[in-house]
Amino acid sequence: MIKVLIVDDDKLVRKGISSAMPWNEFNMEVVGEASNGLKALDFLKSQPVDLMLTDLAMPVMSGIELMRAARQLYPELHIVVLTLHQDFDYIQEALRLGAVDYIAKVQLEKEQFEHVLHRIHTRIDELANRKQKQPLLSETNVHYRHVYALVSLDRKLGQNWPIEPTSNGEELRWEIERNSWMWAAPMDVGDQLFQRLKESLNQVHQSALLIISDVQERTWSQIQNWIINYTETSLFYAYDPDDPVIAVSMNVDDSLPIEPQDEDMDRIKQSWFLSPWPHNDSYYNQLIEQFKSLRLHKSQLIGLLYSIVMEWNHLFAQTKLGRISMSHSFLSWYEVEAWIKQTSVGIRKADVQTSYSQEIVDAVKKSIIIMQNDLDQAFTASSLSRQLNISRSYFSQCFKDLMGKTFNEYSRFIRIEKSKEYLLNTNNTIFWIAERVGYTDEKYFSRIFRELTGLLPSEYRQLGRGDKKRTLL
């Protein structure tokens, strides 16, 4: 019996999935529920679980963080992602943390329950069968000088064997995971194997050839796990399509990224929004180095980029400063840097078209970020213009022209937008929310809220939460 844990911060969603799906028909049993990642880890410590279904967006510990921790602590655990997104390609590519499948909650209908569980059960069986085929080789010590790994960074495309082993039987090959292969041969034929693998690189989409040293006296299983970890972390940064042959040592343990601190992530966001990096090579290089120095796991990096793009478009998409677009997937840092450079070109074009000096455009951007970061403060056009060393009248004129709203209109707009988030995602009082968005008078806040939305805050909360539950169920 496959024991199942369901992790989602919405109780109704947990209960709905637990009770509605035909678990018994697929030899599955729901043994527990958890409302966030920390509680899920506590449950995993207390009793065995074979399959965990987890939401991505949760308080306390997100689904991404939970997956990362669970994979290290419980490598045999199968994970399925619950998501609100119908197009999951980019999320699946971003996570790459071992999820065997995903469930799009907006598409969950009764007639699909059986299909979803059948798909998950089939995938679990495939992984179990693959593991059963490997025991004799997996625990054998390696005595070769090098092990080679031919790895495609694109896991979506099916690939045939790029080359066949020689007929003399001296070469060994091993499928690591989809689109990844491990090869080894005695020293006297190792050079020939290397040349054949190198020539095969153009047969495998966006591939790299790893020459792995210091493999002696390690088991095939250890080497295989090391290659998987390296592929999902360091290779993302090391890959260069112009030089796809990479020499690495198993003694250099750089396969695990450094866990980033919140202040590191905030520093990058501040650089993106407040420094003139699209217009200045020095600032551009600083931004690139900030990204690279964190050595974020690919899922973390893409999550950070998505948050930057979403925040930028939330602030500027409807203004003369323009929107930016996000690629649905990145296979390497090489592609990320190309996207950043392309984005800088788009930002420069939008800035030039405003007819204002770059100094003024940057000042308006900075004023918006200041306001967004401190919504509980009572900013005025006068105070911000003094802070930015611009005359009040000229600042107000530029602000309205670039943002499409007067300073006061924009100030009210962003405060009410933030209050909507609080109303839907917290249980805090209306007074608490009013204070957090800069209103000390609850009645005045409610009046402004109603003017802009047509609803009182309490009515908006009730209506919005009702819609959310209907969507999830």
From TrEMBL:
Post-translational modification 4-aspartylphosphate, affected residues: D55
One Pfam family it belongs to: Response_reg
SMART domains: HTH_ARAC, REC
All residue ranges annotated as the HTH araC/xylS-type domain in the record: 365-463
InterPro entries: CheY-like_superfamily, Homeodomain-like_sf, HTH_AraC, HTH_AraC-typ_CS, Sig_transdc_resp-reg_receiver, Tscrpt_reg_AraC-type_HTH
Native source species: Paenibacillus ottowii
Segments forming domain Response regulatory: 3-120
Name of protein: Response regulator
Keywords for this protein: DNA-binding, Phosphoprotein, Transcription, Transcription regulation
